Amino acid sequence: MLDLERLRALHSVATYGSVSAAADVLHVTTSAVSQQLAKLERETGQKLLERNGRGVRLTDAAELLVAHAERILSLVEQAQADLEAHRGSVVGQLTLAAFPTAVRGLVPSALRALRADHPDLRVLLREEDPMRSMPLVSRGDLDMAVVQDWNNEPLPLPEGLHKGVICDDVADVALPADHPLAGRAAIDLGELSGDPWISSVPDSICCDWLLRTLRAAGSEPRIDHMAYEFATQLSLVAAGLGNVILPRLGRCDVPPGVAIVPLSAPLSRRVYAVWREEAARRPAIRAAVTALRAAVPAGLPTGVRAEVPAPA
Question: Is the pTM of this model over 0.90?
């Protein structure tokens, strides 16, 4: 009989490329992973790992076993979800990631409601950019992620993931108060051609989107400053250092010296939760989606017609 934890160790090595990386994900020592793999080799009578320079590579036997392990682990997750659904209780542990704006603007209220309504559910939160969090959900490292995409650039949903819309979030432009267009009722992005801009950090989904959006508006972006948090970006706007495209969910206290102006051709992003197909029947998933929607600030439409987990 193959041991499930040993299969999980082998699957993690295959997924993350090394024994040490697998140990980090499984929250154990590298020695513990090596011992599990050695026991699995004795159990199967097959050599599973070979030296490859400073690292290791999987043998053909290991590749065959990993393919089976992936299906086995998926079935185990489905069984756990079905048992929770049968019991109908929101219990256990839910690992959740969210992008920074959602961590500040949505998640605290949602977690407070979950703790009050479902005291037997433990939610573990981490802040992650959607480009990182969705693969983590796909691999099973996270149960759910709150992610975003824009109306002019949808984010592809990996195979095997389901989603539920949380809200739609409209973006405005934050300008220095002395900007010539600061008093306008609405402006077009093309009117800001040549202006300096403030963006999120390089290689983030927000920075990449801003570059493509400004280029589509007819100008090569001039990004002088980069900061991850919108609050920091607004401080730079107040100092007269550039403009920011600011989603309303990300709008904290607007400092003096900043003018918020709507766009004549609105830009909006959709905020949604994603989870694995195998986990769709978990009551904890449904409860988390419900709590996130209830936490949406007034004025932002929620995704009431969105795809949701099937009822128990």
Answer: no
